[in-house]
């Protein structure tokens, strides 16, 4: 075929025009790339006219950019999240202090160590006392690059992630990171894995900056847990092998390091074969690391486990309830000042007299069982059933599909369970506190019969109704208002309309009111409820509560008429402090348990004590003390001397409704002692009768204690108020105010009352305050919730009241009699106490 066609064969549309110049065709332009990042990326990838390598490069670049963006975003999020975790982490000071942690030491007044406060029971030993093969085994197994990294081993962390992804789970935490968990298990250890690793890393970096490698190792070996309450290598060595840490062999050291991978999984007591295999692996790693020769490896692996478990008892405080109260006070003090009670090595000098403490415990051990046998215990079947429902046998019966009734019947048929519950239910308890009223120093503190069986503190924590021991505040308020011990009142029971047709009418423990006149000193000596109630109604519950608050009662008090009879619960510690105000000439000194706080270096951080505050006039305090001396001389507390108590003594007994609680407060110029005796469950009471009164339950404990310690007290006598007690009578030389000359007193058999032969009356609530229906009596509106006394400005109010009373005395020159009851009003015909409806709440204390 010819190369060129003849001109005639060329298509007309392609032949050049003879008159038109030849023009080359315009090349076609590429379309513009689309707008938008994603569309442009997709166009560059799918445009077939672009070379393949350029399209692949576009894809790789996109992935690189995306990965970089994600990495940067993740890094920012991780940093922000890590910063947010710092709020829940210990700060640098705490981390530094934790690695050098020292327990707080608590000492008695005479210098004997009572106990120490630390996170866990352990015995800290220096690193020089730990065999070198233990640290070799630790580093070879847990952290080979320990001396090379700065707290976090990134190389090991990446390797651990790689092996864990292949199914061989490995830990990436260094020794320093593990130490952070030991030191702060709550803040670092008990969280999710991501949070834990971040916190470990940050805390480990701070520890490495503040401590040497040797200090880190020492802290680690002393804080690592090894089961069976053995924290640290020293206790672990004694627990498992009965030797100190410095005597551990290579195989024994390797066994402890083997347990670090999982103490429960490699427990040599429960899983000896598993623990042995792991121990031999640790020994092999020591050989690989060059710490042991091949012969030493074989010799160590041939050694048997040889574990003989010897659990170490925790340190027992010499006064456990006292030191626990010290711990609570110290924790509150430390929170406000930035100290760590368990790690800062504080030295606490307490006020406890260890000799008195032992005598108090001996008196409790001797007298409380006797009281339990004499007074007995009363409870209903319903009360027993409540406790039977708390037994594991009852829970198992319910879990097995039994109905509650059938489960209870099954428990009742098990005599062993019933007897055990009864024994716990009827175990008599006690709380006793002794304090120097001139300093406020607490000298003895017994919270229960036995701390191990009943750790609950009945001296400073439990609140029980004080009964007639509260009458001391009633008579103090009466003296402030100008009354005299010689003033007479009518022995009659006031009636208070409680609303809803109910009347509150208190009675005396020995029987009803006589209707005759009685001196105030005699009414207090023989604990006349009727007289105390009359005085309380005239004084007013708010003013009475303010005075009690100023004298030392810190518990909330119900502003009700029965407050005068001790129906608002208080602690023994509060009552002892308040009675100390009376014995100390009206100067209030709060009970002090901690005398001085020192740093680990011996620097005095805080000294406690100082001056008190006058809340009763000296005259009123001395007159009240003289009246309470009559309680011991010839009143309800006269049996105190039968137990050997002698010297200048004053006090008050107390019994609550249905004989639930027994109290006795004993005052000496240099020692005030108080005790409560009763049962944990308030539904369990003493048997009815005088054997359940405070003079027969709490008095023997207090009097026996005082008889044991009185020879060690300095000779002292109560100062006498002007005009009182200057002459003793021949009939009763112990009496400050003479013998009882009230003829109505002769009608009551006080000998029977004191000796326990009198019959106890029925409950005053049941006998004297029945629900009386009075259709014609208006029912006032009564707030169902009793009002509470404010804790503010009580001392100032009491001082003002005392000054006003003193001014009235000076102007009048005489002391007024108790005014007659207010006449009935039209709106409240049964009100004989002049109270408002809001104050007409409460029950009789019995």
Automatic annotation (TrEMBL):
One family name in Pfam for this protein: Transgly
Span of domain Penicillin-binding protein transpeptidase: 432-661
GO cellular component: outer membrane-bounded periplasmic space; plasma membrane
Keyword Nuclease attached: no
Subcellular location, principal: membrane
GO BP, one annotated term: proteolysis
Record field: catalytic activity: Preferential cleavage: (Ac)2-L-Lys-D-Ala-|-D-Ala. Also transpeptidation of peptidyl-alanyl moieties that are N-acyl substituents of D-alanine; [GlcNAc-(1->4)-Mur2Ac(oyl-L-Ala-gamma-D-Glu-L-Lys-D-Ala-D-Ala)](n)-di-trans,octa-cis-undecaprenyl diphosphate + beta-D-GlcNAc-(1->4)-Mur2Ac(oyl-L-Ala-gamma-D-Glu-L-Lys-D-Ala-D-Ala)-di-trans,octa-cis-undecaprenyl diphosphate = [GlcNAc-(1->4)-Mur2Ac(oyl-L-Ala-gamma-D-Glu-L-Lys-D-Ala-D-Ala)](n+1)-di-trans,octa-cis-undecaprenyl diphosphate + di-trans,octa-cis-undecaprenyl diphosphate + H(+)
Residue span of region Disordered: 1-30, 755-846
Pathways per UniProt: Cell wall biogenesis; peptidoglycan biosynthesis
Record-annotated Glycosyl transferase family domain positions: 111-286
Alphabetical UniProt keywords: Carboxypeptidase, Cell membrane, Cell shape, Cell wall biogenesis/degradation, Glycosyltransferase, Hydrolase, Membrane, Multifunctional enzyme, Peptidoglycan synthesis, Protease, Transferase, Transmembrane, Transmembrane helix
Bilayer-spanning residue ranges: 57-83
Composition skew (Pro residues), residue ranges: 817-826
Biased composition (Basic and acidic residues): 762-777, 797-813
GO molecular function: penicillin binding; peptidoglycan glycosyltransferase activity; serine-type D-Ala-D-Ala carboxypeptidase activity
Subcellular location: Cell membrane
InterPro entries xref list: Beta-lactam/transpept-like, Glyco_trans_51, Glycosyltr_51/Transpeptidase, Lysozyme-like_dom_sf, PBP_transglycosylase, PCN-bd_Tpept
Entry similarity comment: In the C-terminal section; belongs to the transpeptidase family.
Identification of the protein by name: Uncharacterized protein
Originating organism: Rubricoccus marinus
